[in-house]
Specification:
disordered N terminus; disordered C terminus; six-stranded mixed sheet; elongated; alpha/beta; Transcription Regulator spoIIAA
Length: 658
């Protein structure tokens, strides 16, 4: 490719020498300036300078913020509200009321999972919905209490409502900062196997936490094993009436869930008559509203029994009527004495900094897991459309800050609730407005009736909901695809069961990163003895970037290969797309070692950005970017030059080493 001398090589330029086998010494797709058969540090810098922008970054960033396009992107309501139609309004109204009636019993039940008084589950289920109308991007997503958020709140706040509200406030701001600095990519560090193991463990722990309400026994501890040990120790105090009611409610809920999926008549809707459609709609409605229907029936029966002086079941207790007053979250905790009658432990005085210390790394884990849950819910209904993770972080962060001002605890986007919203025919995020209004009306007008809801009914609602979150269906595909991922998923599952949840997920993520680092530290290296015009050389091809974990491994292999052969060594750098200071030190030592032995080493197709890193330590590299320059260097080694244009490379030996 002699025509490239003193010229720029254009992006994706064609190979001139057609006699070379495909895949051997593929040319770089970067812009490269070549004035002779090698490049040097000065020319690399000149080339990199061509690609750099001289415009001030901060000024450019500020210009991008204050644009109409950015405004529409950060306030998605401006995109769909001008196109809002009557059909959209009807669909959103139906979906909002349907989901709202589902949120009420779930909010009451999830507050028990969080270890908080019953009303806090509803306090965190309306303001977040209002905020999401303005900032949300997914029409199916709803903001409210979830099993994951409730369990993490319990394990971080330890059942103290002041800590739970402050946790909501601070994690909301952390999510806002994450959206500003575009840290949504952090969710990518939680792999699918780790997420599956974590979700399954959450389902098991939440189910275990509600068995105490069904059996009427005491349950203490923060981990799965601790709770089971505590319940088994208190099994002699089981409440038979609560146990029978709870088991019957679980069976009814599962049966109604199955009933809601039944379809009668032809499968194609066009072939169904009005009777088929009517019956199918009734069955679907019964399946969707099963929680609310069960709560209404059981509450009515309990109210009648209580009026007759028959106290068969353990009840929810008093729920304050009306909406919570708006106020900043508590930044300190006043001491409260224990109440043995209601099983309320003593609460000691805490300052703001002591509260922060007690929340600990939950301030980091909770936003990370919340982001994973929210993005998963959005992706489930995206239908192939891209998800704006940055905007979702902003929306959920603002929603939780708003929740904390009304004494609500942590709220996320729940997959099950979003599925109900989707099945109800939601059209836009405005359905969240009606969900919030339904919850507010319940707090104002129905709070006095919540007293009569049996705790075993709320426990049955949670168990029947989370039991389907156990990710057993991923076992078979993982076994067929990559068995080490199955091991990782099992490790995450067991770690989250045995340890506190936030520690278990950190351990699982850490082990997953170790797997990644191991693969980065042991790249595949291809060693080939090749010849061109009867000139032999040893070609070494790493298959990935050269960074600090793999630097010593590659160094030892190159030095060992160089010592065993007197042939010149050519390192094919086509796949080295990244490097660092440690690797640069290693390359410098390799070059010095070869130079001391008067053994030639050539770097072929090394990207200019990587060459700049290597030459930053004054390493004198021999760089070649085409076959002619490579032949030129090999000819120089033998003391003569060859102007032949037909240079064919043949592969004589190929050995793959790890």
């Amino acid at each position: 490719m002699s025509f490239m001398e003193n010229e720029f090589s254009i992006h994706k330029s064609h190979q001139v020498n057609t006699s070379i086998d495909a895949g051997q010494f593929a040319g770089s797709t970067e812009l490269i300036l070549i004035t002779d058969h090698r490049t040097n540090k000065c020319r690399n810098r000149q080339q990199i300078a061509v690609n750099e922008k001289n415009e001030n970054y901060c000024r450019s960033y500020m210009r991008k913020i204050f644009r109409k396009k950015t405004l529409y992107k950060r306030l998605p309501i401006l995109q769909w509200l001008p196109k809002y139609s009557r059909r959209d309004a009807i669909g959103d109204l139906i979906a909002g009321i349907t989901v709202g009636l589902t949120v009420i019993p779930q909010g009451l039940a999830y507050s028990n999972v969080a270890g908080l008084p019953t009303q806090f589950g509803l306090y965190g289920s309306f303001m977040g919905c209002f905020v999401y109308v303005l900032l949300g991007t997914c029409k199916d997503s709803t903001i409210g209490s979830t099993a994951v958020a409730s369990l993490l709140t319990y394990q971080v706040a330890k059942g103290i409502w002041e800590r739970a509200v402050l946790l909501t406030f601070l994690t909301g701001f952390i999510e806002i900062f994450m959206s500003i600095f575009r840290l949504g990519f952090l969710v990518d560090f939680v792999s699918g196997p780790v997420s599956a193991g974590f979700t399954s463990a959450v389902a098991m722990i939440v189910s275990t936490s509600q068995i105490k309400n069904i059996l009427g026994v005491q349950s203490e501890g923060s981990s799965f094993l601790q709770r089971w040990i505590s319940m088994l120790n208190d099994i002699k105090n089981i409440r038979v009436n609560d146990a029978i009611l709870g088991i019957c409610c679980v069976a009814m809920l599962l049966g109604m869930r199955t009933l809601g999926k039944l379809k009668i008549g032809p499968k194609a809707q066009d072939e169904q008559n009005w009777k088929h459609k009517c019956v199918n709609k009734i069955l679907w409605f019964m399946g969707v509203m099963r929680n609310a229907m069960l709560v209404i029936v059981c509450t009515a029966v309990t109210m009648y029994l209580e009026s007759q002086g028959k106290h068969y079941f353990k009840l929810t207790g008093n729920v304050p009527e009306g909406l919570p007053s708006i106020a900043l979250p508590p930044f300190s905790i006043a001491p409260r004495p224990a109440n043995e009658t209601y099983g309320v432990p003593e609460v000691k005085r805490e300052t703001f900094f002591e509260m922060i210390e007690n929340l600990g790394y939950g301030l980091i884990i909770v936003p990370m897991i919340a982001m994973l849950e929210n993005i998963s819910a959005c992706k489930a209904f995206a239908k192939g459309k891209p998800i704006d993770a940055t905007q979702e972080l902003l929306a959920v962060g603002m929603a939780n800050v708003a929740n904390s001002l009304f004494q609500g605890y942590r709220a996320n986007s729940g997959l099950a609730r979003s599925a109900v919203n989707n099945a109800s025919g939601v059209r836009t995020p405005l359905a969240n407005l009606y969900i919030g209004l339904v919850v507010m009306l319940a707090l104002v007008y129905l709070a006095k009736y919540f007293y009569y809801i049996p705790l075993s009914v709320l426990g049955a609602i949670i168990i029947s909901a989370v039991i389907f979150q156990v990710q057993y269906h991923v076992i078979k595909p993982m076994w067929r695809s990559k068995r080490s991922d199955l091991l990782l998923s099992f490790l995450a599952f067991m770690a989250c069961l045995v340890m506190p949840l936030e520690i278990g997920i950190l351990v699982a993520i850490g082990v997953n990163l170790l797997f990644i680092l191991y693969h980065a530290a042991r790249p595949k290296i291809m060693l080939e003895t090749m010849s061109v015009d009867e000139l032999k050389f040893l070609k070494i091809t790493p298959d990935r970037c050269l960074i600090f974990p793999s630097a010593e491994f590659v160094r030892n292999l190159i030095l060992k290969s160089g010592c065993q052969s007197s042939l010149p060594v050519v390192i094919d750098c086509t796949y080295i797309y990244g490097s660092d200071y440690t690797a640069a030190k290693v390359i410098s030592s390799i070059v010095d070692d070869f130079k001391s032995r008067q053994h030639k080493i050539i770097f072929f197709n090394l990207k200019p950005s990587i060459a700049q890193i290597f030459e930053g330590l004054n390493a004198q590299l021999i760089l070649c970017y085409n076959v002619d320059s490579l032949i030129y260097e090999l000819k120089k080694l033998n003391g003569y030059e060859d102007n032949s244009g037909n240079n064919k490379i043949t592969n004589t030996i190929a050995v793959i080493k790890r």
